[in-house]
Every structure is written in C-alpha cells, then in structure tokens.
Amino acid sequence: MGWYEHELGWPIAGTTPPHLVTGVRFDALRVPDKVGFAALTRFPRPGELGPVALDGRHVLLLVAAGTAEELPGLLEWLEWSGIPLDLTALGTGDLMRAPAHPEWGRREAAYDRTAPVWLRPPQPGCEVEPTLPAMCFTGRAGAGTDGAAEPIGLVALVSALATACHRLRLVENQPCSFSYASRMDAGTRPRSLTS
After folding, report:
1. Which terminus, N or C, of the chain has the lesser number of Cβ atoms within 10 Å?
2. Residue 145 backbone dihedrals phi, psi, to 5 degrees
3. What is the model's pLDDT at position 101?
4. What pLDDT is stored for residue 9 in this prediction?
C-alpha cells in the first residue's frame, strides 16, 4: 500500500489490512450504497465530488478535513436534526479501510467481496484538498482549470445526501400504500372490487 504514502502523501495506520487515517488530509462521509450511487448519478461531472470508495454496503465520499466536526451543526442548520439518517462522518482519530490501487482493486474484490474499491479514485500527483467538497462561500482559485467541474460545496452535498438517506429510509420502512396487496391487508379493498 505504498501508493498512499509515496504517491498521494496520505497517512495510513500500520494495521492489516491497511487503513487510511482520516482527519489529517480529508474526512469521509459514510452513506448506504444506494445513496452513494445516487450521489454519483446526481453529480456526474469529473471534479464535482472528491474520491469515492465502496466499502461493503456503504459508500465513502472523501470531503475536506474538519467536516466530521461540522456535520452535526450543518445537519441542524439544514433542519435534519432529530431525524434518524444513515449519514455519518469519519474524522480525526478515525480510520477507513484502504481500497486497493485502482488498477488492481477489481481483481482483489473478485477474491474478497468485502474488500473496498474505488468508484472514483484519487489522482496521483494531484493535491487532494482542492478536489474535496468543503464549506466555501466563494469559488476556489484554480479549481476546474483542466476542464473538470469545480467541487460542489459541502452544504449542497450534505443536503443531497440527507434527502437521499431519508427517502431510502421511507421506502425501505413503508410498504407500498397503493398496491392491491397492501390495501387488502389493511382491510380496504380497491373500488373495482366494491362497486
């Protein structure tokens, strides 16, 4: 895993398998895989999101360092406090499993289905910080000069993720209220059967 230390300059923990140390160069937002894939679809242009990894049934979106401390206040400001969301942050003192190098990550995942893989890998030789969603109120100088989109703001990303997490929770915890079977279970038959 020398790729992380030598090419990217990211600190790793000396565990087996290796883990990336969050809170130093970046934090990570952890959401269910369906929510993460929805975010990738919503922000498809290169550069809008930072690196994104799939770890089991969760997606990790790398964001600016310090986001983990800001997340509770940001969710409260967005009026999501008190609503259970499967949206957490890994920050200072936390670890995330290190996905394999993008060139051999798929082969490793073929042997170990739980091994994390990059969905949008980091770019070697590029600083990661300018590519990460962060709290910003003005455009960033230099972002998007290579034709890539400027990273979206952290507020827009967290708002989209919180909405998607809430929708997923509603869909998974509520039967389809207009289906024939659910109406028969509830004792209310469709009109076509009563008239």
Report:
1. C
2. -75, -20
3. 78
4. 84
